[in-house]
Amino acid sequence: MDMDLPGLSAFVAVVRAGGFRDGARTNGVSASSLSLAIRRLEKKLGVRLLNRTTRSVAPTEAGTRLFERLVPAFNEMETALDVVNAFRDRPAGVLKLNVPATVARLVLPPIVTPFLKAYPDIRLEVIVEDGFVDVLAAGCDAGVRYDERLEQDMIAVPIGPRVQRFATAASPAYLAEHGRPAHPGDLLAHACLRGRFASGTMPTWEFERDGAVVRVDPVGPLTVRLGAAIDLAISAAVGGLGIIHLFEEWLRPHLDGGALEPVLEPWWQSFSGPFLYYPGRRHLPAPLRAFVDFIKT
C-alpha cells in the first residue's frame, strides 16, 4: 500500500488537537483540507479512523491504535528534520509549550518577548492546560509545571521566580463589615471565593507558620474554574464579595493599589517556582534547545 503521508499527518494533527478546527489552526491549513485528507486516507485503508459528531471528534478503536503507532514515528521524523538546524546560522522552527494558566499569565510574559526578539526565526506556540499532560502525545516539545506534578523521567529546568507565595486578601469594605480573621480557622466563618480544577477537584487552602501547616475548606458565594476564570474571582473580591486565596503575583497589583488588603499574611505559604520539563530520551529540537539556554542565562 502506498504511503499517504499527507493523510497520516492530517490524522495525527486532528487527534492531537481534539478537532478539525484546532488541528487546522495548529498546522496552518483549512479544516476542510484536513477533513478531505482524512476521508481519502480512510477510503484507502478501508476503515473509519474518526467518529465525527457536530460537537466532537474522537478516534475509533482502529484510529486509536494507528495514532499510538504513528506518534513515535512522527516524533522521529521531526527529530530527523531538526538535524539540519545545526547547519543554520541561527535556530528556526516551531516551539510548542504546554503550560498552566498561572504560568501563561505570571511567568512567561517577561520571557517570551526577549526570547523571540533574540531568535526571530523561531515561532512559539503556547497551549494552556492546567492538568498534567504527556507533552509528546499532545504534540508539544515541552511543558511547564510545578515540581509536585512532574514525572520522574523528565528533565526539569527552573523557569521564572524560584519562590512564590499564596496570598489571602479581601477588600477594605468586606473587612470593615465582616471583620478580619486572625487565624486560618476563622475563614470557616467568612465568605470565601473558591476555585475548582477542570477535573472537578477543589483544592483546600493551605497556610503555614513556624512549621505548623493548617488546611481549611471554607465555603462562599462564588466558585470559578481555576485559571480560566480567576479574573472573575479577583473582581468579586475587589467588589467586596468575599476573601480570596491565590498566587501573590496575581493579587499584587490590587494589594499595592489598595483595592485589596492582606489577610493572614504571617500565614502565607511559600512554595518553589515552576519548571520547564521535557523528555530526556530524545534529541532536543533546536528551538527548544535555544529556549532552554535562554532561560538558563
What does the model show?
With 297 residues, this protein is of the alpha/beta class. The protein folds into three domains: 5-69, Winged helix-like DNA-binding domain superfamily/Winged helix DNA-binding domain (Arc Repressor Mutant, subunit A, Orthogonal Bundle); 88-160 and 273-296, Periplasmic binding protein-like II (D-Maltodextrin-Binding Protein, domain 2, 3-Layer(aba) Sandwich); 163-272, D-Maltodextrin-Binding Protein, domain 2 (3-Layer(aba) Sandwich). The protein has helices at 5-17, 20-27, 31-45, 61-82, 101-106, 109-118, 172-178, 230-238, 248-257, 286-296; strands at 50-52, 57-59, 93-99, 122-128, 142-145, 154-158, 163-170, 192-196, 205-209, 212-216, 222-225, 243-247, 261-262, 270-272, 275-279. Strands 7, 8, 11, 12, 13 and 14 form a six-stranded mixed beta sheet that branches. Strands 4-3-5-15-6 form a five-stranded mixed beta sheet. The chain is elongated. The N and C termini lie far apart (50 Å).
Q: Uncertain spans, ≥5 residues at pLDDT below 50? A: none
Question: Rg to the nearest angstrom?
Answer: 23 Å
Helix content: 25-40%
SSE series? HHHEEHEHHEEEEHEEEEHEHEEEH
Query: Span between N and C termini?
Result: 50 Å
Structural class: alpha/beta
The shape is elongated
Average of per-residue pLDDT values: 88
Query: What percent strand?
Result: 15-25%
Number of domains: 3
The number of helical elements comes to 10
- Please provide the count of β strands: 15
Q: Determine the CATH topology of the largest domain.
A: D-Maltodextrin-Binding Protein, domain 2
Q: Under the CATH scheme, which architecture of the largest domain would be assigned? A: 3-Layer(aba) Sandwich
CATH C-level class of the largest domain is Alpha Beta
Mind summarizing the main beta sheet? 6 strands, mixed
